[in-house]
Amino acid sequence: QVQLVESGGGLVQAGGSLRLSCEVSGRASSYYNMAWFRQAPGKERDMIATINWNGGRTYYADSVKGRFTISRDNAKNTVHLQMNNLKPEDTAVYYCAADLIGGPGVYDYWGQGTQVTVSS
């Protein structure tokens, strides 16, 4: 069973940057495609970035494209989300999720989330 633990959230002013990290344990991260989701108060959880098992393919939601970068280091079993030029609308709880390669194609494993608050 894989466990995911996010870190790096916090309070930042608009225009600032944060780097979120997701530590993968229980099984090597290379077994999983990984993603970051976020959920703002009163809204649904949205997928904002994904990365395939070896980092060769990424996807970004339009809302974060050009500002956020997802990356991974399988040697360290970590996934990162570099967030630049943050906006108040980026305020949300950010979740790391894992999709087992060869599995049903859904993100079955989730971290507990880390709060990101962007002040105007």
Number of strands: 11
Low-confidence stretches: none
What proportion strand?
A: over 45%
Q: Return the string of H and E elements.
A: EEEEEEEEEEE
How big is the Rg?
13 Å
The average pLDDT value, as a whole number, equals 96
Largest sheet: 7 strands, mixed
What is the rounded distance between the termini? 40 Å
Number of H- or I-type helical stretches: 0
Coarse shape: globular
Short synopsis of the structure:
With about 120 residues, the protein is mainly beta. Helix content is about 0%, strand content about 55%.
Notes on the protein architecture:
With 120 residues, the protein is an all-beta fold. Helices cover 0% and strands 53% of the residues. It has strands at 3-7, 10-13, 18-25, 32-39, 45-51, 58-60, 68-73, 78-83, 92-100, 109-110, 114-119. Strands 2, 4, 5, 6, 9, 10 and 11 form a seven-stranded mixed beta sheet that branches. The chain has a four-stranded antiparallel beta sheet with strand order 1-3-8-7, with no helix packed on it. The radius of gyration is 13 Å and the shape is globular. It starts with a strand and ends with a strand.
Ordered list of secondary-structure elements with their pairings:
Layout: E1 3-7, E2 10-13, E3 18-25, E4 32-39, E5 45-51, E6 58-60, E7 68-73, E8 78-83, E9 92-100, E10 109-110, E11 114-119
Parallel strand pairs: 2-11
Antiparallel strand pairs: 1-3, 3-8, 4-5, 4-9, 5-6, 7-8, 9-10, 9-11
Write out key terms for the chains shown.
11 strands; 7-stranded mixed β-sheet; 120 residues; 4-stranded antiparallel β-sheet; mainly beta
